[in-house]
Amino acid sequence: MIGAIIGDVVGSRFEFDNYRDKDFELFAEECQVTDDSIMILAVAKAIMETEKIIHSSPDGNSYYALIEKMAIKYMQEIGRQYPHCGYGAMFSNWIFSDHPEPYNSFGNGAAMRISPAGFAARTESEVRKLSNAITRVSHNHEEGLKGAEAVATAIYMARRGFTKNEIREKMENDYYSLDFTIDGIRDSYMFNETCQKTVPQAIEAFLESTSFEDAIRLAISLGGDSDTLAAITGSIAEAYYGVPEELEEKALSYLDRQSRAIYDEWQCFLRNRSRESRD
After folding, report:
1. Is 279 within the bounds of a domain?
2. Domain of 55: which CATH number?
3. Backbone angle region of 73, left / alpha / beta, with phi > 0 → left and psi within -120 to 50 → alpha
4. Domain range for 109
5. What is the pTM assigned to this prediction?
C-alpha cells in the first residue's frame, strides 16, 4: 500500500502540470493525498473487515459476496469524508449515491485502488477472485476488470519472488501487449484516464526501473495522469523492491489521523497474515 501512496503523493503536483523527466524533487509543498490513496485505504479496510467476519481462507462464494458489500460500504463511508480529493464525476456520483450500482466503467480508478488485493491474496486464483469482486461494484466493464486484475496479479507475483521477465511474460500473455518503452512513448503520450492507456504504461515503468524510487520517477516522467500512473507503478515496485524507510515516513506525514490509523491497521493485518503462513 505505501508504494501506491508514495506514487500518489509525489505524482499529485504533476497531474495537470506534467514534467517529462526524472530529475525532480520527490516531495514538495504542493504534494497532497488524492482520491487514489483514499480509495486504496478504503479497499484495505474492506478486506480487513471482511476477514474479521469470515476467518477462513476465502474459498467460497460467501466471502466474495461479503467483500463486495464491504467494498461498497467503506469506499462510500471513507470516500464521503474526502469530497474534494479528486474523484471523477461518475465515481463521485457513485460515492454519494444512496443506491450505488456498477456503471460499466473502464476508468483507471479500478487499477489504482486494487493494490491491497495483491498484497492480501494467498494464491493467484484468489488474486483474480478478490480483484474482480472489489472492482465490479463500480467498474464492471471488461477493461476495468482486466486492468485491476493485471495490477493485482503483478503485485502478487512481485511479492512472491517472480522475476521481471516472468512478470512481463504473464502480463503479455494474459493482459496487455508491452511492445513499447517509456522513452519511446514519452513525447507522444497524452493524459488518459482509462485502464487501457494507463495500466500497461504503469507496468512497463516498473519493469524498466532499477529501484523503487526509479520506478516512481519513470512513471511520473511519462506525463499523463501522473498520480495514478505512479500509484500503480509504486504498488508493484513496493512488492518487488520494498520501500526505503525515509520515503515511507515522508509520505505518511501527508495522511491525516484517520487515514494513518487505517494504514497502521493494515500493516498489523499483513504482519499477522505473514505469521499465520509461517505457522
Report:
1. no
2. 1.10.4080.10
3. alpha
4. 2-24+32-274
5. 0.94
